[in-house]
């Protein structure tokens, strides 16, 4: 029997759900339960918000000097480095990703904490505004928003938590986080590390539980000043509607359907061809395609298409599937039975609409939620598989003849998170990148990001930005302080006689 973990942390206390409800956490590699966590509800969320509210209104953290806040974030980064292997293994088992992917995630989380520590530590006392008079001192200062409700997805539970927690704490906020009910375990560990680093009790609170109850309550709660959500568009719009009644700040990162545009000139040499194919594999199949920025739409120049797709399919068929912690595994399982069924349905739909299967398209004969990396050729924009986000290892192939057609195809989506262009012609690459309506555009690369550069999308990919200076600004309010150094009567309402005297 698996012991129940106390995964709800409220005001400095680890506890079970008030209802006593629990949830099994499933290992997607073999479809068996390996942990049991608390299944919180509305009252647990209310208690957590009350603790965060008290910690913000009366506690130490919002009034902690910036240098001390930065020092704490650096201590957290050191603890992440210390526990790298343990956390990577837990992330691998919980989310199904490979150990190498888990290690990269921990390193990126460490870097995020270091970046926001440095960002706030190097700031000055505000932005001085020239009022046009030596008698006026005017400055804009940036203060914490208050209590933050943070809702994170199942695909990158630790990474997405850090993108919200690090800037929220750097700015001086308190928070309640609700990780995905499917993959909550590394977020629980991160809260433990925050406490070990010395974060005052009540500043960090976590409630594990469903989005429909705990997440919905955080979005609508009148004592939550900001809600930051990463996940699907349907859930994100519900969050925005719930938040509207209390007119709180909202930040949404809602995924994408991301184009990877390959011009023939990028593959004019054997090295260029090999690199573009290799990167197309990485773009589509990292973490079994369960990435909001996955390059799931290959848009390749028609003259190159047959040779490119043949090699892509050949290599996709060689990708080694297995448990993420096993040696030599290159791709893990999908996160759940539901996600596997969703992927199978999309592939069946595409084949029914005329797509040509070039690789994959099946579940291997093994336990767990595995699905072979799949390449679907001869796709077009009317297909569901091309228009809708799948979150599975499925790559669609479209072709173009002209640069203008390539841009039109790449932008023909209601999303706008990320995209890439491959070309040996620098002018063409920059020209196409400038015309792509996506929040991140890579030229001759795919997937890297920098904590100092903003991340977010156009259109239905969301509202606001994470990372970079804008990622910190999401968790702040701007306040203008105007000081008159030589106050005197205005006489605006002094009466006619006094105005004449004045």
Commentary on this structure:
- Pathway: Amine and polyamine biosynthesis; betaine biosynthesis via choline pathway; betaine from betaine aldehyde: step 1/1.
- Keywords: NAD, Oxidoreductase.
- This is Aldehyde dehydrogenase family protein.
- Residues 16-481 form the Aldehyde dehydrogenase domain.
- This protein is of the alpha/beta class and 502 residues long.
- It contains 16 helices and 21 strands.
- The strands form 5 sheets. A 7-stranded mixed β-sheet has the order 15-16-17-14-13-18-19, sandwiched between helices. Strands 10-9-8-11-12-20 form a 6-stranded mixed β-sheet, sandwiched between helices. Strands 1-5-4 form a 3-stranded mixed β-sheet, with helices on one face.
- The mean pLDDT is 96.
Give me a quick take on this structure.
The protein is an alpha/beta fold. It contains 16 helices and 21 strands. The strands form five sheets. Strands 15-16-17-14-13-18-19 form a seven-stranded mixed β-sheet, with helices on both faces. Strands 10-9-8-11-12-20 form a six-stranded mixed β-sheet, with helices on both faces.
